[in-house]
Amino acid sequence: MSYETQLNCSPVHKSNKCVNCGVRLIAFCGVLDDQSISKLDKISKEKKIIKGQHIFFQGDDVKTYFNIKHGSIKLYKLSKDGRKQIVGFLYPGDFMGMSSDNLYTYSAEALEDTKICMFNKTVLENFFLKYPEVETKILNLVNHELSAAQDQIFLLGKFSAKERLLQFFLNISSQREKLGWVANPIRLSMSRSDIGNYLGITIETVSRTLADLKKNQTIRMVGTNDIYLNFHKEGLSQNLI
Questions:
Q1: What is the CATH number of the domain that holds 165?
Q2: Whether residues 8 and 53 fall in one domain
Q3: Which range of residues forms the domain containing residue 37?
Q4: Are residues 20 and 124 in the same domain?
Q5: What CATH number is attached to the domain comprising 81?
Q6: What is the number of structural domains in the chain?
Q7: Could you tell me if 24 and 102 lie in one domain?
Q8: Long-range contact pairs involving 186-190 (C-beta distance under 8 Å, separation at least 24)
């Protein structure tokens, strides 16, 4: 049984789940009014994903699109010789699964217990025909992801380990603000190893840089996952990307 088949088992159906969705206003469906979004509700399935579970794998046929309601997801690619490169982290409101060649170009794994909305690819694309504003919104999200990927390439090529890590924290903080959450402190759902892989630095460098940032009081850590940012975000953003 494929992972997508497993995910489609025992979906959670709730009336008006789209109308009452907590991330509706920032997700692709936020362009729809209550009447229209109720129609989207009828073609969606809600599923809980446990930490460490894959939603799909690189190279699988694209049969389903996904929107994140709760939690976070790691996206990664594997080279032919098996080396892994993390290409992004997704959060509530993010859409994933679109591909130009009908094969998923990356794998998606839950970093924590996560809730997603699932849409049959063909059914959702037919929905686009009636509601083109939804497709436009998704294309805008895809363009934003492309811009973020270009920023990431620039970051990896030009900045120090400290600058990469601080910009990474800023990105998480901005995502929390977009969701209407408190932007500071931030919470890290990914491992130190994942952070290092994504930023192109070793796990030892991540740990050493975190220790330096704590020592000079640029950040303050509570436990292992919550970080208070003690620097001026706007000023740092202007000096970086």
A1: 1.10.10.10
A2: yes
A3: 3-133
A4: yes
A5: 2.60.120.10
A6: 2
A7: yes
A8: 186/226, 186/227, 186/229, 187/225, 187/226, 187/227, 188/224, 188/225, 188/226, 188/227, 189/71, 189/72, 189/89, 189/111, 189/112, 189/225, 190/72, 190/74, 190/89, 190/111
d(CA 133, CA 33): 11
**51/71 Cα distance (integer angstroms):** 9
Token couple for 219: 């950040």
Angle of the 161-178 helix axis to the 203-215 helix axis, nearest 10: 80
140 domain-assigned: no
Q: Which of 221, 208, 228, 89 is nearest to 160 (CA)?
A: 208
For range 142-168, the mean pLDDT: 73
The answer to the question of residue 12 being in a domain is: yes
Partners of 108 in beta bridges: 56, 75
Residue 12: CB partners within 8 Å, gap ≥ 6? 45, 46, 47, 48
- How many residues are present in the chain? 241
Q: What is the pLDDT of residues 77-135, one digit of tens each?
A: 999 898 999 999 999 988 899 887 889 999 999 999 999 999 999 998 898 888 888 77
